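Structure (tokenized):
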């Protein structure tokens, strides 16, 4: 697990009461991978998920990016979003599957945050361990495995990148709205 922290200019010592985890590839960004990305990220953001990230940040929640990519590939995203922490792959230790769940749990312990107050946003069955670690999981898109879990557990839902239309703020609603 690589946890890279970035300090925001307005940072003051604070103890967040909740955290929000955002899978990057295919969830926060409307692309499945970061290899070869260059230039502005503007059109690559998935508006409903980006709006949720900003809403969590405004509430003072710990904002955490979770990615298969490594630190170098995430640098442009980290520069733009200034998350509180990044959980990502490092040589010989990819951030995938159960590793995402373990990393999220460790970060919550480190910050003494109760999992039931936390959120996670993800788009594929491989992200189930991350979603299972929080009290408010949000399925992004139409993965059939995640949708089955969402129906059983009354999880939040957001449209996937291919279906995202209109105003980002209106797309964030219902069970997926932080609060």
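Design, position by position:
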């Amino acid at each position: 697990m690589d946890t890279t922290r970035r300090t925001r200019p307005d940072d003051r010592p604070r103890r967040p009461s909740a955290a929000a985890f955002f899978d990057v590839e295919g969830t926060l960004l409307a692309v499945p991978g970061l290899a070869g990305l260059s230039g502005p990220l503007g059109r690559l953001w998935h508006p409903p998920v980006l709006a949720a990230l900003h809403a969590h940040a405004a509430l003072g929640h710990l904002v955490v990016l979770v990615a298969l990519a490594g630190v170098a590939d995430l640098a442009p995203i980290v520069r733009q979003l200034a998350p509180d922490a990044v959980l990502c792959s490092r040589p010989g230790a990819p951030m995938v599957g159960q590793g995402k769940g373990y990393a999220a749990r460790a970060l919550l312990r480190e910050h003494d945050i109760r999992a039931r107050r936390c959120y996670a946003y993800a788009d594929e069955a491989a992200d189930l361990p991350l979603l299972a670690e929080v009290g408010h999981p949000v399925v992004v898109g139409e993965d059939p495995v995640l949708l089955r879990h969402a129906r059983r557990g009354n999880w939040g839902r957001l449209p996937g990148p291919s279906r995202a239309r209109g105003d980002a703020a209106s797309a964030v609603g219902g069970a997926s709205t932080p609060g």
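Reviewer-requested clarification: Residues 98-111 form the longest helix (14 residues). The mean pLDDT is 84.
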